[in-house]
Amino acid sequence: MNKIQLLLFSIFFFSYVSYSQTYSSIVKPRISFIDESRTLNPDLDYLNASNYEYENMIKYYQRIVFCTIYNDTLYNYKLMQWSTDIVIYLDKNLPKSVANGFYDFISKSNINSVNNLNISFTKKVSEANYIIKMTPKMVNGYDKDFEFDSEEERKNSFLTGGTYELSTDQNNKFYSAVLEMSSKLKKTDNQFLKQLKQLFFKSLGNFVADNYKDTDSLLHKAYINSDTISEFDMNILKIHYGIIYEQIINGSKFRSLVKLANSNK
After folding, report:
1. Coil, helix or strand for 19?
2. What is the pLDDT of residues 171-219, one digit of tens each?
3. Closest among 12, 195, 224 to 101, alpha carbons compared
4. CB burial readout 173-202, b (16+ within 10 A) else e
5. Which positions ≥6 away from 184 have C-beta within 8 Å?
6. pTM of the predicted structure, to 2 decimals
7. Going by DSSP bridges, is the β-strand pair 119-122/162-168 parallel, antiparallel, or unpaired?
8. What is the rounded distance in angstroms from the CA atom of residue 217 to the CA atom of residue 159?
9. Strands 119-122 and 130-135
10. Per-residue model confidence as pLDDT tens digits over 118-158
């Protein structure tokens, strides 16, 4: 085989490999001899960019989950999901208007229309796997050495005086959580409700908050405390919970799935 023939063969071979990728070749089942049959051809339409009104919606999502849209170099963020139903207990120390406001916000939204995500409430703490409560101590959702651009930004951050702790299995799947807000800051009930909504939404995927889109997004640093969940945020959830993944997914694997989902569009 001469050099030209070898080159043509190599081009054909690698083109064939790239176009013959399947979900199972990207996402390996943890126990392949049990799970292989149900991971052959899952519906990846939730990764089809044309389904979303916002331009670059998939790229926004990648920034929110992996903190980058590029190959994994500086960052090593992993996708994290709830694999169980979320059953919320609202502690009695929460101001009544905050508890009622949060209950109405979730109950009246269409958040439970998202595939593989189910959120409900209980009045019995023993039945809950997600507890929301007030604490008299000071808690923050950032490290002590984290630097804000200004004292005003630190003061207004929803991570100041609020945090959550998520229990995660070895496959990056959440199964319980405790969310706390500090009463030490003496916020108004409306400020506590705004903070609670943002913290809770962030905990649905341990999302990275920033000024991604409009201020009605729960991940926006200047969130306006909307009465409804924005279309942008709903899209984030639809992408995030399109499939409960069989293994840990990093940015590189996710980008391979996106290419696969859009290869025939």
Report:
1. helix
2. 999 999 999 999 888 889 999 999 999 999 999 999 988 777 788 999 9
3. 195
4. bbebbbbbbbbeeebeeebbbbbbbbbbbb
5. 136, 137, 138, 161
6. 0.83
7. unpaired
8. 16
9. unpaired
10. 999 999 999 999 999 999 888 777 777 777 777 777 777 77
